[in-house]
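Hmm, what's this shape?
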Amino acid sequence: MADFRELAPGQITRVHVHDVATGEDVVVFESREVLFEAPNWSTTEDVLLLNGNGVLWRLDAKPGSEPVQVAHEGLPPINNDHVLDPDGEHVYCSANDGHIYRAPLLGGPVVKVTREDGIWHFLHGVSPDGSRLAFVRMASFAEPGRLAVISADGSGEVELVDTGEGHIDGPEWSGDGAWIYFNTERWASRAGHAQLARIPDGGGEVQRLHTSDTVDWFPHPAPDGATAVYLEFPTGTQGHPADKDVALVVVSPSDWSTERERLPFPGGQGTINVNSWAPDSRRFAYVSYPTSR
């Protein structure tokens, strides 16, 4: 079995850039060969970083571009949990050996950050000052994921943050560093009913952002804090599977219950697992996975 996800027969990867100011949605690249996932937006260039075939790729955020593989030394096959270092020169990648690695954006040797073997570390957030990482810690897939924070160089103890009962995923900081946003099943009355939440950085009371019957994942605030987007799965979904009829919902962080915009498409796993806002807070990138007919 491959160490990475692959397209189904007839399936297409489409990388989109969406402008929340105009509503314009542009497909900047599509592939029938490689399943690309989870774009990050560079803080210093108009460039997207995506994983595909177990490695990292760079793609200009404009139509007609072609992805270029980033050559890394010592990096195991990676998954779709990767987040940029605020220094603009590195990216942190979750690899399929369970560890997190820090890698140069332009390629070269990597450094393993995490130290616990036999533990899955699914990275989703880097603090705005670049000093800490927020990830989902799991000893096995049979147990709920827990919110954990470590120093960016892996030194010191792993801090487990109490978010209550139930699986959590997607923890990432707000642009001002005051909050960690995530999705959680702590309020679930049925298996898999994830909802959006946040907790103060450093711990405290968990705040529910929105009450819905749908299954809501990966809340991503824009850098300026004025807009946010999340991934909505159909009612009854368990986990965040691939190949579902999903929607991206654009909201104001002051009111997550009121939709500003709704984008339906086939996707799910790989669509927007990590924050993909541009530095201008006006555009975000995502991936859809339609099947040709």
